[in-house]
Amino acid sequence: MYNYIASFLVGGTICVIAQILMDKTSLTPARILVSFVTIGVILGGVGIYGKIVEVGKFGATLPLPGFGFTLAKGVMEEVDKVGLIGAFTGGIKGSAGGITAAIVFGYIMALMFNSKTKY
């Protein structure tokens, strides 16, 4: 039960921060998206976001900072394995599964629901 509550609180807090930024600042959603991914990379790189994931479980890995954390974690693991070239390949390897799933399931949903382009 604790995992569900912690996931909800951490994930909800991240989403509330994003909503406040959209409502109270002139930042566009695209800038907030990039900022959250960048913050996830930085916090993951210095070891802080790993602690947030330990507490918030899925609630910390699903939002955008979680994607940045996955990129940073993949890069660090790949650099440890193959050296400097891992800085270029680690993020791709670390996040490939999630990106592939998003593309495949998005395509399936587009086929199922006969999506159309808005003009």
From TrEMBL:
Pfam families: SpoVAC_SpoVAEB
Record has Transmembrane as a keyword: yes
Top-level taxon of origin: Bacteria
Keyword ATP-binding in annotation: no
Keywords, alphabetical: Membrane, Transmembrane, Transmembrane helix
InterPro entries listed in its UniProt record: Spore_V_AE, SpoVA
Transmembrane intervals: 6-22, 29-49, 94-113
NCBIfam families given in the database record: spore_V_AE
Name of the protein this chain belongs to: Stage V sporulation protein AE
Protein's organism: Oceanirhabdus seepicola
